[in-house]
Design a protein that fits this description.
The chain is an alpha/beta fold and 230 residues long. 29% of the residues lie in helices and 26% in strands. Strands 4-7-6-5-8 form a five-stranded mixed β-barrel. A three-stranded antiparallel sheet has the order 1-2-3, with no helix packed on it. Strand 2 and strand 3 form a beta hairpin. It binds hypoxanthine.
Length: 230
Amino acid sequence: AIRIPYENIPNFPVSTVAGHAGQLVYGDLAGKKVLILQGRFHYYEGYDLNTVTYPVRIFKELGVETVIVTNAAGGINTSFQPGDLMIITDHINLAGNNPLIGANLDAHGPRFVDLTETYSLRGQAILRQAAAQDGLHLQQGVYTWVTGPSYETPAEIRYMRTIGGDAVGMSTVPEVIVGAHSGLKVLGISCITNFAAGFQEELNHEEVVEVTERVKGDFKGLLKAILAEL
Ligand code: HPA
């Protein structure tokens, strides 16, 4: 693999989250050429959405075909357990912002982007099949995007449940919207790290990290298994 620290890439932002390496990794994996962002950029860190989604624009320019976005999320759907992996079938944008606001990048896509089928149905089917082969149970559902960095209130979670959210998190949707704008195939997987606010006694980042550490083997196996099929 070739590893390029973000500070060596022109105009690339630098990650502020502790524990994120902040490098772009390029190499061969399961018969595919892959680019991996080791450390992504969150809106709550203070970056504007153009900066958050800049890597996706670069991916498009480099000829990438499919973007796979992963995240940690709180479970709103009461049948979800911490440690579950969820295929993102759709999203709800509750952040009150959109990465496409501003001059349209005509070379990448249209002004008004259709998000009817944002998450590749074929990709989702490949994920389900790979999981079934590994005996891995996959949830599926709607990811709700909030800015963070505070976690939600129990009242907000009840609202999200009412409007159809299954999971909630502070990332992913900006990159997905820009991916859709530039015609990339998009696939999303959430790791449910906790019950959402009001469904468990308290929320903390340590639990989020602990659960992602626990399931990262499953996560990696699943990614490798689907790469070959994409
Ligand atoms: N809310 C928002 N973001 C999250 C959560 C949550 O409960 N868990 C992990 N990321």
